[in-house]
Write a structure and sequence with these properties.
single chain; 207 residues; Arc Repressor Mutant, subunit A; 10 helices
Length: 207
Amino acid sequence: MNEVSGLRARKKQESRRKIVAEAERLFRERGYERVRMIDIAQAAEVSEPTLYNYFPSKEHLIFDMDQELEERIVACIKGVAPSKALVEAVRKESLRFLGDLSRSGAGKATGIPLSVLQSEALQRVWLQMNSRIAHRVAETLLAESKPKISRITALILGRSIVAVFAVILEEFGAGRLRGRSAKRLRQEIQSAVNQTLDNLGASVPRA
């Protein structure tokens, strides 16, 4: 990549980050349904066509976090064979994710993830996102597992692992929407995650 191409790529990344930051701010201040794409474009100081070049819809914009979540999940399982070690890696990262979520302010009724619970369009994108991440997790397990596991086993494990993170996000959001404290929710979800992963650990193939 030459210097001009590198500069262009950095500017695109900076524009994307600014758009996402401004969109998240507007969603939190006004609520997802009250924010238009043109509002986001104006706040990010880009044209509306430029905004649509980055994000085909508002639903896709709110889930720009999906890349971060995907990389987080894949990173925690890389190099870990399907065994109790895999379960412990998922436990460690999912509980860290829960802690980050409870400290982030994402439980506000105008923000993320509560918006997911209030929009059918967002729910569809959310399900698509989970399916895509689960397939990548499965492919990672297939590529790295020794001894090799079957594709069906990898798919089951992939969907199970992603479900842990998805349910944490959904249930934390639902609880905050009902007015429950972040601290209490974190305790309850942590207990459920630990119990579920204990059961999963008893069923995964041995390394």
